């Protein structure tokens, strides 16, 4: 082992001597670097290897590269890169290669090397890295997409990108994201060919004009059409949105629309898209008078409603009604400075939302109350109808609000996440309209919900209410009563941190650490921002900077996936004073 390490250290000497000779580093600094690199080399040649040692080695070498870059900029020296930077970059790639071969299952190692290659101009390595990674992780569609995008955008190789997408489809024949990105790539390729064609035309060079008869396009459209037939209307609409980005795809968009109308009229999203499309449909020439514009908008909205009602004849489902109601509400809330447009109020032909809005706007409170209550009886299991009706009853200050909130929670399925808006609305009303004891009882009931999203969100609201009504002591007491009862949201802990900092008397560093530690216990494996906030806290007036190194070590141990790379980048920027 010692012989190998000695050889590696000797290989470094020419580069270190060059750094000293050109004035980028002093003799003392070079000696320190040699000592540090020797220690790192020994760690990489132990009998029992550690991933952290490899990460530390790479991070040290990257820091050296960054420092060289700054020193070059400061003294204005830009030569000898092949003698200084290139050997360092080659060493880093070799270490990445060794680490990836040892810990093949760690995708983050592969992605870190990809990011390094992109940043430090070694794009020639990218294809090799992706090829090795995909051979081990063919089950991850996002990696195939990333590799194809790299070939297309970074290496400017459309053929290689197409080959990767076709291979990806063999492993993931029903993955929507792969089809979407493949579709986008082919359109980008066609756009590039069109631009080249235009440049040649401007140069008056004879060329073969590109069109949709191009073999590349025919094959792509055939593949995408197969995917469309398998996956459905929502996927077709996503492709349509991608195609709309390019100004030469009108024929392709028309084909997708024809397929959508012919095969997917049994899906509510089809009718919703076709109805909303009427608003942007080509119409009369641009009108200058306010009355003319108001009439044109009114006609367009009537056509939209006609499409919705046509769809309801064959598809009278709750999603279909939801789309119709949402459209009517969006149009009712439209903002305009034109008086005639403000006065236009298409109620959506007996659509509930506009009806309630109109009744409230003209002051018919009793009628609005009756319609809202009737709607809850007709659609007793719809969260959206309950929310809208209860908002109306709260607005008119009806005496039946409290009992209707309780009835809503009985009728709506308590195990669905959609019930969260009802709980939030109930809490907001109770805080304003009920005594503190009743509000506290409501929060206690919400905390017992079997839906994690409801319980977590209400903890945060409960803590905020406790602080507003009882001050810091009550907030602290509430936090202590809840901090052992999962589930939690990140905001629950950050809110307590904020409350602690707002105290007139000096906040307690011990308490702040306790809040962060509890938050990291729940979210420390995925939330890199939480670790950075904790480190900044230790660097602040109340913290202890000596704890930062330990926190960095813990973060590298705890974080997984892409969060490791984000944390490493943010921590490096913090150390160098960039953030």
Automatic annotation (TrEMBL):
Its main location: nucleus. It is found in: Nucleus, Nucleolus. Residues 302-345, 356-559 form the U3 small nucleolar RNA-associated protein 6 homolog C-terminal domain. Keywords: Nucleus, Repeat, rRNA processing. GO terms for biological process: maturation of SSU-rRNA from tricistronic rRNA transcript (SSU-rRNA, 5.8S rRNA, LSU-rRNA). It comes from the Eukaryota. Residues 9-91 form the U3 small nucleolar RNA-associated protein 6 N-terminal domain. GO terms for cellular component: Pwp2p-containing subcomplex of 90S preribosome; small-subunit processome. The keyword rRNA processing applies. Gene3D superfamilies: Tetratricopeptide repeat domain. GO terms for molecular function: snoRNA binding. Belongs to the UTP6 family. This is UTP6 small subunit processome component.
């Amino acid at each position: 082992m010692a012989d190998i390490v000695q050889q590696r250290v000797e290989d470094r000497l020419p580069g270190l001597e060059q750094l000293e000779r050109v004035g980028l580093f002093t003799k003392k600094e070079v000696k320190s670097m040699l000592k540090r690199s020797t220690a790192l080399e020994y760690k990489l040649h132990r009998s029992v290897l550690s991933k952290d040692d490899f990460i530390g080695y790479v991070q040290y070498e990257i820091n050296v590269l960054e420092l060289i870059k700054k020193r070059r900029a400061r003294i204005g020296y830009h030569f000898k890169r092949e003698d200084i930077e290139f050997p360092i970059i080659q060493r880093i790639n070799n270490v990445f290669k060794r680490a990836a071969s040892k810990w093949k299952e760690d995708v983050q190692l592969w992605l870190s090397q990809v990011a390094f290659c992109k940043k430090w101009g070694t794009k020639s390595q990218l294809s090799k890295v992706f090829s090795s990674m995909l051979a081990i992780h063919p089950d991850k569609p996002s990696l195939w997409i990333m590799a194809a995008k790299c070939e297309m955008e970074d290496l400017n190789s459309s053929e290689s990108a197409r080959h990767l997408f076709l291979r990806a489809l063999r492993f993931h024949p029903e993955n929507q994201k792969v089809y979407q990105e493949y579709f986008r790539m082919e359109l980008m390729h066609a756009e590039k060919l069109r631009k080249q064609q235009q440049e040649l035309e401007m140069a008056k060079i004879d060329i073969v004009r590109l069109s949709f008869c191009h073999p590349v396009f025919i094959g792509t459209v055939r593949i995408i059409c197969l995917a469309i037939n398998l996956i459905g209307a929502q996927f077709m609409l996503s492709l349509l949105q991608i195609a709309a980005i390019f100004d030469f795809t009108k024929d392709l968009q028309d084909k997708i629309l024809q397929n959508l109308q012919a095969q997917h009229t049994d899906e509510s999203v089809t009718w919703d898209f076709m109805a909303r499309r009427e608003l942007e449909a080509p119409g009369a020439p641009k009108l200058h008078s306010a009355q003319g514009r108001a009439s044109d908008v009114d006609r367009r909205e009537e056509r939209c409603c006609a499409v919705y009602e046509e769809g309801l004849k064959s598809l009278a489902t709750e999603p279909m009604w939801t789309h119709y109601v949402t459209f009517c509400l969006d149009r009712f809330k439209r903002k305009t400075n034109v008086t005639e447009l403000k006065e236009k109020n298409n109620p959506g032909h007996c659509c509930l939302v506009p009806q309630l809005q109109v009744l409230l706007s003209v002051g018919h409170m009793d009628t609005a109350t009756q319609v809202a209550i009737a709607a809850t009886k007709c659609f007793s299991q719809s969260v959206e109808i309950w929310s809208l009706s209860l908002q109306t009853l709260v607005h008119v200050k009806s005496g039946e609000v409290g009992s209707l909130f309780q009835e809503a929670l009985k009728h709506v399925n308590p195990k669905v996440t959609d019930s969260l808006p009802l709980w939030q609305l109930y809490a907001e009303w109770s805080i304003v309209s009920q005594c503190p004891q009743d509000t506290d009882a409501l929060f206690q009931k919400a905390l017992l919900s079997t839906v994690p999203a409801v319980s977590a969100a209400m903890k945060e609201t409960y803590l905020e209410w406790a602080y507003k009504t009882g001050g810091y002591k009550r907030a602290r007491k509430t936090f202590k009563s809840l901090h052992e009862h999962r589930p939690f949201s990140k905001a629950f802990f950050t809110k307590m941190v904020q409350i602690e900092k707002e105290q007139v008397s000096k906040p307690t560093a011990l308490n702040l650490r306790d809040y962060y530690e509890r938050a990291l216990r729940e979210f420390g494996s995925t939330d890199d921002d939480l670790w950075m906030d904790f480190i900044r806290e230790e660097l602040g007036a109340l913290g202890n900077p000596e704890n930062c190194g330990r926190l960095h070590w813990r973060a590298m141990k705890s974080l997984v996936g892409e969060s490791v790379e984000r944390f490493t980048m943010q921590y490096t920027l913090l150390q160098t004073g960039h953030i």
